[in-house]
Task: inverse folding
């Protein structure tokens, strides 16, 4: 491993290509943390946005008109405003607002109090709600594609409403929603770069710090590209596999 | 495309009234497939969104005005800065026009390269397309903004390159890649019979593409092209992160000049959103109507 690191140091000394985050221990740690932060951010956002999507789709079919209208309002707001504005709003308006009102629980971070939800937490929340708004619509169109007669048939077989939803409606709806979901999740991963604006130490932000300290913009840019394209490629690969495995035989081409 | 066996009730009309999935399922899946080619998302702007923004602007102006003591009212401040903000928006429009023009030309070339018969050309253009399509806009923008020099010397004269021209190039790259996919998608959506019949009429490949395939593609490409324009126009405020003097930068400068009064925050930003809405909404509606008009009826 050391030899590998040293090879890059030699590369810098000979050619001027400065991949400082490989051979310099401090930069390396910072870089790995950043990679890990982006991956964590992506995974959390993926999971939470799916939860928002499923719960939201269920709430859209609720009996209460208030719940339905709240859902409709949420979707409209989050679909039609730029995610950049959403992140800034969550962090600076809600975050500082809760802090000032004293509603944000804090923890002792070695002598001073830190709010429980930092920039990372707010980034997860705002990005999940952003992607979730799209997921709600995606799941809803999937659920709408399941005929009422199928649900009735399930009920005739003794399924309760919830059981029919879990065992009959969702599996069918999910297969219909998967292609659109795939598109949205790819988009979500690309949107995580926006966490840069609230100083979440993810790839984009850390790369910026590294190139500011070491003046190696081209090298960091290449690495950023490879990282993001790779991340998206991994997601697309697994989603396609999954899409293929889940497809309804004979349905569509 | 893979041929599939026909399953009654699944991909043909059901003889009974109990289909496995309703016809809307096929539409949902089809829309997702199309979205992959034509754009990451479709704008869904409605007229009442503009109304809601206007209402938000007016309510917050009203509240701020009412809570205002001796200071100058926010309405007067907003009015004073309106040309400044609109001037910033003008730069947004300029960036979007130029980036779209550049992206369209480059995307058309790249798209045609993707349907080339030469495997190296096809593969390399595919790689370029996928690369720029799948990297975040912000990363592309940063790359171009930071890697291009701020001035170039030709002979003795030094030409400065302003920030916003670099932003144009930064935005044109993802547009190029996505339009390349639009072109490719349109070309392969033309039924193979068109290719075969033109071949049998002794058209060369070049003639087939220019005289038979592309004229048919053209109509199909217009709605996704416009959709991408809308997406681009909405993305241009991103370059404010790099300090390009566009509308978001101008709004924050205006607010800083007014001592960052918190009651100005909502009026200024909803005013900005309203401007963007007024510009984007008609284009989005027009796109939808063209899409309906050009829809191929089979």
Result:
């Amino acid at each position: 491993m050391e030899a590998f690191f040293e090879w890059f140091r030699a590369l810098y000394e000979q050619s001027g290509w400065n991949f400082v985050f490989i051979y310099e221990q401090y930069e390396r740690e910072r870089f790995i943390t950043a990679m890990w932060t982006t991956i964590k951010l992506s995974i959390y956002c993926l999971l939470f946005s799916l939860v928002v999507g499923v719960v939201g789709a269920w709430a859209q079919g609720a009996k209460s008109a208030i719940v339905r209208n709240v859902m409709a309002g949420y979707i409209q707001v989050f679909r039609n405003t730029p995610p950049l504005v959403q992140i800034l709003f969550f962090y600076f308006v809600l975050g500082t607002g809760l802090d000032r009102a004293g509603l944000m629980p804090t923890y002792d971070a070695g002598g001073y109090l830190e709010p429980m939800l930092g920039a990372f937490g707010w980034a997860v929340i705002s990005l999940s709600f952003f992607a979730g708004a799209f997921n709600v619509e995606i799941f809803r169109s999937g659920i709408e594609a399941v005929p009422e007669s199928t649900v009735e048939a399930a009920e005739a077989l003794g399924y309760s409403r919830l059981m029919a939803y879990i065992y009959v409606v969702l599996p069918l709806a999910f297969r219909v929603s998967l292609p659109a979901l795939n598109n949205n999740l790819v988009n979500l991963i690309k949107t995580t770069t926006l966490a840069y604006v609230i100083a979440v130490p993810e790839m984009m932000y850390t790369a910026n710090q590294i190139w500011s300290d070491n003046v190696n913009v081209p090298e960091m840019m290449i690495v950023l590209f490879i990282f993001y394209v790779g991340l998206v490629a991994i997601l697309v690969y697994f989603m396609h596999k999954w899409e293929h495995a889940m497809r309804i035989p004979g349905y569509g081409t | 495309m893979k041929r599939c066996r026909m399953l009654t009730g699944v991909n043909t009309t059901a003889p009974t009234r109990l289909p496995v999935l309703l016809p809307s399922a096929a539409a949902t899946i089809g829309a997702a497939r199309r979205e992959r080619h034509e754009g990451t998302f479709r704008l869904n702007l409605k007229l009442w969104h503009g109304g809601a923004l206007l209402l938000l602007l007016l309510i917050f102006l009203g509240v701020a005005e009412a809570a205002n003591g001796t200071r100058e009212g926010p309405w007067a401040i907003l009015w004073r800065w309106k040309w400044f903000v609109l001037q910033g928006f003008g730069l947004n429009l300029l960036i979007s026009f130029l980036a779209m023009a550049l992206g369209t030309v480059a995307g058309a070339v790249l798209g045609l390269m993707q349907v080339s018969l030469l495997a190296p050309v096809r593969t390399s253009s595919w790689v370029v397309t996928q690369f720029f399509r799948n990297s975040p806009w912000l990363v592309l923008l940063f790359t171009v903004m930071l890697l291009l020099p701020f001035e170039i010397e030709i002979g003795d004269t030094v030409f400065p390159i302003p920030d916003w021209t670099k932003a144009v190039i930064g935005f044109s790259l993802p547009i190029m890649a996505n339009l390349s996919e639009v072109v490719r998608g349109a070309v392969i959506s033309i039924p193979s019979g068109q290719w075969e019949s033109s071949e049998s009429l002794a058209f060369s490949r070049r003639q087939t593409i220019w005289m038979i395939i592309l004229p048919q593609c053209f109509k199909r490409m217009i709605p996704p092209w416009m959709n991408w324009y809308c997406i681009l126009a909405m993305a241009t405020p991103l370059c404010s992160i790099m300090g390009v003097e566009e509308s978001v930068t101008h709004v924050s400068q205006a607010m800083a000049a007014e001592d960052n009064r918190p009651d100005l925050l909502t009026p200024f930003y909803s005013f900005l959103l309203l401007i963007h809405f007024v510009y984007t909404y008609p284009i989005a509606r027009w796109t939808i109507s063209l899409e309906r008009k050009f829809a191929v009826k089979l």
